Protein: SCUB1 protein
Organism: Fregata magnificens
Amino acid sequence: DIDECLVNNGGCDHFCRNTVGSFEACHTARCIGTLECRLTEDIDECSFERTCDHTCINYPGSFECLCHKGYTLYGLTHCGDIDECSISNGSCDYGCLNTMGSYECVCPPGKKLHWNKKDCVEMVKCLPNAKPAPKAQLVCSKTGGIESCFLSCPSNALFVPDSENSYTLSCGIPIQQGKAQQKRNATLPSCADSLAPPIKQKARFKIKDAKCHLRPRSKEKTKDSGKQAVLDNCQVTFVNLKCDSSKKKRRGRKSPSKEVSHITTEFEVEMKSEEVSDTCNIDCVRKRMEQKLQTAIKTLRKSINKQQFYIQFSGTEYEVAQKPAKATEGHEACSTGQVLQDGKCVTCSTGTFYSGEHNQCVPCSPGTYQDTEGQLTCEPCPSNDGQGVAGARNVSECGGKFNLIVKGLGQCSPGHYSSDGFKPCRVCLLGTYQPEPGRTLCFPCGGGLVTKYEGAVSFQDCETKVHCSPGHYYNSTTHRCIRCPVGTYQPEFGQNYCITCPGNTSTDFDGSTNVTHCKNQHCGGELGDYTGYIESPNYPGDYPANVECIWNINPPPKRRILIVVPEIFLPIEDECGDVLVMRKSASPTSITTYETCQTYERPIAFTSRSRKLWIQFKSNEGNSGKGFQVPYVTYDEDYQQLIEDIVRDGRLYASENHQEILKDKKLIKALFDVLAHPQNYFKYTAQESKEMFPRSFIKLLRSKVSRFLRPYK
């Protein structure tokens, strides 16, 4: 090899780098156009696939992975859900339920969540200045021999368009709330004094030749109401209605499919203590109310059959289902809760509601708010001081005294508590602590322990008999430090809990002190795509101990496998305890393509000696390492001779530049793209190829491709 750089710097303006059989020149200080120059520039790792699970930030010479709220980083680039319930029970008063990216506190029967969403309070308790929300009303009447029913929904309304011809709406708050309702109504006061379990009734209805579109009732129909005789009048605690349109096909007939709307309703009526008297006890009251509700549902069925059932939001009456209007054929209107702006349907934002009467989004009036998009009404603020601003987007914007409470003004500070979490407050007594503001209780140290002083804010203020180091937690029953079990860790001194590893990760041993000890155990699988990756579990973080991964690459017909190992990190001191092997099958005597138990930072490419590949990675209980990420590609078997000729040529690895190609994810992706789909070669111009790869590499490939395609030239 001649070192051209020795003579006049190879004629380079910037710098010269010798290569085997040639040299590469960078003619400008910008260093653009050849691999050597590109290697001196910053590599944007964030442009690669699979760099970070969530958010990637590129820095000169490096990058950083960030996780969404409620998730934490592990294995350098991966994000796993934080189990907040493992951290002092999520600071919940009673039960804690972990969810993806968050968590919820739950309460026992008969109690509800306080506004701080942590403490449990009695259902009958109300917050200062809060007034009970008005309840829904089902009124059925008869006009000219036709029954009609109206459901007025003054508060706690939720409209959810499930699809084009399906929606769900609810009104009120159920006595026994599910998780979704608890979450939505956690900040709403409940002054209900339930005497007994509520009365519940479910009913199903059907409307023929109608679609589930919630549309405003025409003014003509409203004017023609005439004199009405009220048949039923029920105050309803909670209503849930689902309308779903589906085309019903008649078997054995060629008639067109028929539009049918199915309506499912669930009513809940509260038992009230004031209705119990000497002449009618609680059982008598319950029976009367059940009969009253059943009678109303019967009338409701008649009104639905005649399409005379309406729901009232913010003074506007809506038809539950409508017959397709011929006048609007060919005109596609926006869905309910949306308005037309600049030719596009836009959902009404928070702080507004959809007015069917005016067909526009209207700001919430003072004293009301709306925290959900696309709704048909605004909710009354849980305060009776009459203050507030228009367009409130949540309860914190309601104004008045309630606004001060939500913003934290007047809340009890950490180390203090009160019956409602607001001032005046009492200090946490000796032996108890409270780390958060606005709480209704203090947590006991347990085991008869006392705190160093009143108003303690952490378990670390409890005078434990021994001081636990990281990787341990204090057991208040035995008064001993216990090592954190496998799958948990504790980075702090003197804590009484261990944190569960994020996501599906676990630790190699007990007593772990950091989240970096949490490793993903998942690996292996069936592979058969044109390109793909095989990587050690938890890559690029250290792989776990005592793990076994098995992959099977089964390429499409008439295709072979090319493997590139850019680098592999296996600890040498393990005496081949960690092994990566690739062979034809699981049988130890089958044809072996590749096997190693050592670290190699120099890349290598090879073709599989068999059409299919069985790949196994095993680690022992000893040392760990970064492991590997090995890309593969399947290619047409007609090119077998050419590919083998290239990967077996020593010049492919002799040049440091060529080695960098096999380590460069962007270049490998381009090479594999052409190998897997040769027609994609024409996507890259000659100039792009020249800028991506050094001349020596292109020269090596061109000579082999030419010889393969024109053997007799």
